[in-house]
């Protein structure tokens, strides 16, 4: 199968892996470790950012370390035509970490965090305390044996060469 026009190559994959493993590394050190010119690394970074492959270089923050050790997922059913209002409502709730619109049972899937199981009730009440939300079904996450990751996907997209 021919490569996708916006696919990454092995060098892109190696660069992404290096940045994921050492996010504070500079362009010059990347070029030294990857054994390519500094300009090549900078051009690759610029291209990867422009295409949205790399979205940022911020710190990874652990909600549990901030005092929010409980993670839950809520499936929400919303009233027709209320999507924009519900999105705005959920964006204003600090404990809402992610929102996805979905197919299947429900209309939205929300990842939320709380300080405790008792605090989770407060968060859920705040989430569903909006006229546009018809019903919610919540599941508490017990553990996260495969945390969010993209490096295996990067390796596959790069043809296994990183």
From TrEMBL:
Record keywords: DNA-binding, Transcription, Transcription regulation
HTH asnC-type domain ranges (all copies): 8-69
Record-level GO BP terms: response to amino acid
GO cellular component: cytosol
Pfam families linked to this entry: AsnC_trans_reg, HTH_AsnC-type
Range of residues in the leader sequence: none
Top-rank lineage group of the source organism: Bacteria
InterPro entries xrefs: AsnC-type_HTH_dom (IPR000485), Dimeric_a/b-barrel (IPR011008), Tscrpt_reg_AsnC-like (IPR019888), Tscrpt_reg_AsnC/Lrp_C (IPR019887), WH-like_DNA-bd_sf (IPR036388), WH_DNA-bd_sf (IPR036390)
Keyword match DNA-binding: yes
GO molecular function: sequence-specific DNA binding
Designated name of the protein: AsnC family transcriptional regulator
């Amino acid at each position: 199968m021919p490569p996708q026009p916006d696919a990454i190559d092995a060098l892109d994959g190696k660069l992404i892996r290096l940045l994921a493993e050492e996010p504070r590394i500079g362009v010059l050190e990347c070029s030294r470790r990857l054994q390519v010119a500094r300009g090549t690394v900078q051009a690759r970074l610029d291209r990867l950012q422009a295409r949205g492959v790399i979205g940022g270089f911020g710190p990874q923050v652990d909600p549990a370390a901030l005092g929010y050790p409980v993670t839950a997922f809520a499936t929400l059913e919303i009233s027709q035509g209320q999507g924009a209002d519900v999105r705005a409502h959920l964006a204003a709730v600090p404990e809402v970490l992610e929102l996805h619109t979905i197919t299947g049972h429900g209309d939205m899937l929300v990842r939320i965090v709380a300080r405790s199981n008792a605090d989770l009730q407060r968060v859920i009440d705040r989430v569903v305390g909006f006229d546009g939300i018809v019903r919610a079904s919540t599941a508490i996450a017990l553990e996260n044996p495969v945390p969010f990751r993209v490096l295996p996907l990067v390796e596959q997209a790069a043809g296994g060469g990183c």
